[in-house]
Design brief:
With 243 residues, this protein is α+β, with helices and mostly antiparallel strands. The protein has helices at 13-22, 60-74, 95-105, 108-111, 118-126, 131-139, 142-150, 197-211; strands at 29-33, 49-57, 164-172, 175-179, 187-191, 215-218, 224-227, 234-240. 37% of the residues are buried. The active site is at residues 95, 165.
Length: 243
């Protein structure tokens, strides 16, 4: 991770959608809360959903999972689609912006971005270069950094110490991919379709939760309780928003 540090992207659809609007994403597209990963409740999420973002606490189990995937990436993966837009994260706290770029860039044909869109210009400029060089170019984009700062309203609080991380799940050419800027390459999670994408992405989110840390909550000096693993996880949908 570089010494360059940006504000973290909070998991608040209002803040995230202000950022998306500032970088040129039309208002009909944005972020919505996924209030539950239960299949019957996924129907309440506005459709279509083009990507799912997951925010989760960084843990030892997550680190081990990253190492496993790195070994797979080093030897190549026969199922990877080389047309996927994938970039690395080198900016401290930059995972949220990278996750949103992954969501936009891999669904750009659906979004009708204006030609002067800040994010479209960045994606067009970087589409054919390596994941590492994409990350280096992002460091130079002051307009994206300023859009992020401007997405916080006056008086709105935000933290600068980030112990959480974002990944993006996308449907690309009939496969479900996990895009994580910390990893060497995308991770394949099997087949999916337009009809089953949200359900399939929810399954991967649940797998992350199973790897997540238990949280010890002390209610008084003598007792302690264990909170559910999923209490510190947030799932968000990128796609159509309720107007």
């Amino acid at each position: 991770m570089s010494s360059l540090e940006w504000l973290p992207v909070v998991s608040d659809p209002d803040v995230m959608n202000r950022f998306l609007e500032k970088v040129g994403v039309p208002k009909q597209w944005g972020i919505s809360d996924i209030v539950s990963l239960d299949e019957e409740l996924l129907n309440s999420v506005p459709k279509p959903v083009y990507a799912v973002l997951l925010l989760f606490p960084i843990s030892e189990d997550d680190y081990e999972y990253c190492m496993e995937q790195e070994q797979i990436a080093r030897y190549g993966h026969p199922e990877l689609d080389r047309d996927i837009y994938f970039m690395h994260q080198t900016i401290t706290n930059g995972c949220g912006v990278v996750a949103l770029i992954h969501a936009i860039a891999n669904n750009i044909e659906h979004l009708d971005l204006p030609s002067d869109s800040i994010i479209k210009r960045f994606i067009d400029e970087t589409r054919r270069i390596s994941p590492q060089y994409k990350a280096e170019v992002l460091k130079t984009k002051r307009d994206i950094c300023l859009a992020l700062k401007g997405s916080y309203e006056d008086g709105e609080s935000f933290g600068t110490k980030c112990e959480y991380h974002y990944i993006t799940l996308i449907h690309f050419n009939s496969k479900l991919y996990e895009l994580d800027g910390r990893k060497l390459a995308p991770v394949v999670h099997g087949p999916t379709s337009n009809e089953t994408f949200l359900k399939d992405a929810a399954r991967v989110c649940k797998e992350y939760m199973e790897r997540g840390p238990m949280v010890i909550s002390r209610t008084n000096r003598r007792s302690r309780t264990f909170e559910p693993r999923n209490i510190r996880f947030t799932a968000l949908a990128f796609g159509a928003v309720s107007m």
